[in-house]
Amino acid sequence: MALNLIMLGPPGAGKGTQAERLARTRGIPKISTGDILREAVHAGTEIGQRAKAIMDRGELVSDEVMIGIVQERLDRADARRGFVLDGFPRTVAQAVALDGIMTGRDPLLVVDVEVSEAELVRRLSTRLICDDCGANGASGDTECGRCKGQLVQRADDNEGVVRERLKVYHRRSEPLVAYYRVRPTFRSINGAQPADRVFDDLAAVVDAAVATAAKPGAWR
Ligand code: AMP
Predict the structure, then answer these.
(1) Please, are residues 218 and 212 in contact by the beta-carbon 8 Å criterion?
(2) CB 92 within 8 A of CB 175
(3) Which atom of ligand 1 sits closest to the CA of residue 59?
(4) pLDDT of the chain along its 220 residues, tens only?
(5) Residue nearest to atom 2 of ligand 1 (CA)
(6) Which terminus of the chain has a lower count of CB atoms within 10 Å, N or C?
(7) What is the distance in A from the centroid of ligand 1 to the CA of 61?
(8) Ligand 1, from 56, 61, 94: best to mutate by most atoms within 8 Å of Cβ?
């Protein structure tokens, strides 16, 4: 069975870090819509140029553009064997479109990473990413552990934009929890723990869900 995983949770919950590690250990691609957009901004493509101002304000890029990006990415051969989606869906309209894209494929496993608001603001205003490759920086470092690029604050991680992104999360993305919670494939984990513990919980949840799915009649 293909592991088709989506990670829900507010900005700063650690979705990107956890998604990356899980994807690496399972040999499937991590598909981060934020990374795809930041690459487009860096490369100066038309989508990148239009997305930049929206991202800098902490708002959401249109459903139409995002659904197009994800549809194209999930159609590639590597994603047919499974994927970890990070940062998508972010609206109920995106979730509905994703259900359409997934027709005929193995079911989605949905993991919600829960973290309190105070902890999120603290994390977001102190985190650094690599200016060259986009990797997350380790706290205290000034250069990237992966490519030696310079670590910088993300343009949308200053406190004003962080507050806006959290507001947008509550208004537009939190309804996704209700959308998915009713499914047998929904799980939530405590994202306020140290990263290694969060990863252990994520891996355990994924393994248990995959074992359940393998039973005849499960998840259908
Ligand atoms: P992230 O790295 O996931 O925090 O995404 C950074 C920014 O990219 C967000 O604040 C949005 O402006 C934009 N973005 C990423 N994914 C989506 C999405 N699924 N829908 C709309 N906007 C998105």
Answers:
(1) yes
(2) yes
(3) 12
(4) 899 999 999 998 999 999 999 999 999 999 999 999 999 999 999 999 999 999 999 999 999 999 999 999 999 999 999 999 999 999 999 999 999 999 999 999 999 999 998 888 888 878 899 999 988 887 778 999 999 999 998 888 887 888 899 999 999 999 999 999 999 999 999 999 999 999 999 999 999 988 887 787 776 5
(5) 34
(6) C
(7) 7
(8) 61
Domains assigned to the chain: 3-213 (3.40.50.300)
The answer to whether 165 is a known catalytic residue is yes
**Ligand 1 pocket, residues with Cβ under 6 angstroms:** 11, 33-34, 37, 54-55, 58-61, 66, 87-88, 90, 94, 156, 165
Active site residue 90: yes
What is the CA(64)–ligand 1 centre distance, in A? Answer: 13
